[in-house]
Amino acid sequence: MSATPIHRAPDTPAARQALALAGVFQAASLVDELARTGQVDTRAWETLINATVDTNPESFEAIYGGHPNNLRRGLDTLEALVGRKQANPVVLRYGFSLLLLMNKLRTDRQMMDVLGQKLTHVQGQAEHFGTTHENVIASLGETYQETISTFKTRIVVQGDPSLLQTRMMPERVRACLMAGIRFALLWHQQGGRRWKLVFQRKALRQALDNFS
C-alpha cells in the first residue's frame, strides 16, 4: 500500500474522529472475522498493520493509507453504531473494550513508554522484513500481550477454538487488537470522547456522510 495520501480527509474534528474510530472498529471486526473464519480482508488487514507500524506518519491521511475506503470495514460498522444498519454485537463489544483499554493505557505513563520502545523495535523489523511479515506480526502480538494484556480488563475473543489455536492465529488476533489501540489513541488525540458517541451522534452521522 502506498503511504502517499491520495484523498484529503475533511479538515474537521468530527471527520477525523470518525476515521480514527473507524480504525478501532475495523480492528474489532477483523478480530471477529479471524476468530470465526481464520481469514481477513487483505486491504483492511494491511491498513491496520501499516498504521500500527508507522509511528511517525507524514500526515493524518497517511496513517490509513491515504483513502478512507481503506477503512471501509470500520466505517460500515460505525454506520451500524449510529443506527443505520444492524450492528454485530460482538464487534461492538470488542470496539468499546478497545476504547476502555486505551483510556487505561494513556494514563499509565510507564506503560506508554514501554509500548513506544517496543513499537520502535517492531518498526525496525518491518523495514527489514516488510510490514506484514510474520516476524512483524508476531512482534506486534507479543507487544500487545506484554503491555495491554496485563491490565485487569481484558478482551475475551470468541470464535472457533480450533482456529484460535492454529499457527500464528493468536499473534494475528493480538496484532489486530494492537492496531485497535493505535486507532483508539488517535481518536482520543483528535478529541474523541465516549460521551460524544452518545450526545454528538448527529455530528458523527454527518461526518460519515462524507465517506459514503
UniProtKB/TrEMBL annotation:
TM helices/strands, residue ranges: none
Domain of life: Bacteria
Keyword Amino-acid biosynthesis: no
Keyword Plastid: no
Protein name, UniProt field: High frequency lysogenization protein HflD homolog
Keywords for this protein: Cell membrane, Cytoplasm, Membrane
Membrane topology: Peripheral membrane protein
Originating gene: hflD
Coiled-coil residue spans: none
Family membership noted in the UniProt record: Belongs to the HflD family.
One Pfam family of this chain: DUF489
PANTHER family: HIGH FREQUENCY LYSOGENIZATION PROTEIN HFLD
InterPro entries: HflD (IPR007451), HflD-like_sf (IPR035932)
Primary localization class, coarse: cytoplasm
Subcellular location: Cytoplasm; Cell membrane
